[in-house]
Design brief:
Helices cover 52% and strands 6% of the residues. The protein is mostly helical. The protein has a domain at 280-309. It has a two-stranded antiparallel ribbon. Strands 3-4 form a two-stranded parallel sheet. α3 (108-131) runs antiparallel to α4 and α5 crosses α7 (233-244). Mean pLDDT is 69; it is low at 18-32 and 135-171. It holds the Pfam family Actin. Residues 1-25 have a biased composition (Basic and acidic residues). InterPro entries: Actin, ATPase_NBD.
Length: 310
Amino acid sequence: MTQAEKGDAENGKEKGGEKEKEQRGVKRPIVPALVPESLQEDISGLQDHEFQIRHPDSPALLYQFRLGDEKLQAPMALFYPATFGIVGQKMTTLQHRSQGDPEDPHDEHYLLATQSKQEQSAKATADRKSASKPIGFEGDLRGQSSDLPERLHAQEVDLGSSQADCLMAGNDSEEALTALMSRKTAISLFEGKALGLDKAILHSIDCCSSDDTKKKMYSSILVVGGGLMFHKAQEFLQHRILNKMPPSFRRIIENVDVITRPKDMDPRLIAWKGGAVLACLDTTQELWIYQREWQRFGVRMLRERAAFVW
């Protein structure tokens, strides 16, 4: 057998082995199309980089370094915070729905504590007024004495119903308090855990009160800042949010728009530009809270002057 025939036989064996592997379910690794280009392994390797630091009246400093897996770890750490070893207790702090302020008359805790008591006292006053009415005479003393137990029984029934109403009002307040505690429990489950960007967005939307608000939030998501400036980050974040959305909203929402880089604008300057535009509006002059107003009214001024729901 010549060398050419041997080479053909070896190539045939290799092709046959590849076909057998494919039949067994062993395939070559394929890089998903949705993975950002900066995260793909075929372009992530040991590469040399350099940068310069210039100071006034001093020579420029040139630094050279090599990057390997760091190019893969840095973008993926936004979605997997455990990559940086952020696994300790109380590493993150979430903003609670209501911190409770005794100076605020519309505070949630204050309303839950006082509303049921006010309802019970009002109903008890009404019951006392109805019970203090004189019983009419309907004949002789015998008839009056015979009617008295029945009237007392009727009053007891009325008082019993009013007490039941008070208990119902108390139960309603207890249900509201239970709902408040359940929301705080849901929030506390995420405390101490470093959430990825996609999970943080889903958790923030899930804390909304109504389904209509959640639907609006899912339909348009704007990411502000320069943390997602690497290539294909917008498509990758959109893919992860679509996969982790609740099935009920996935059937309703037609399209989920994730915007990380607006047109003709640096994403690092969006918040500053929005604040500059807001400061130029005429209505902004009415939102100022002066020192004498704050000293007199305190937190209540935020209800009247705050630009957003507080």
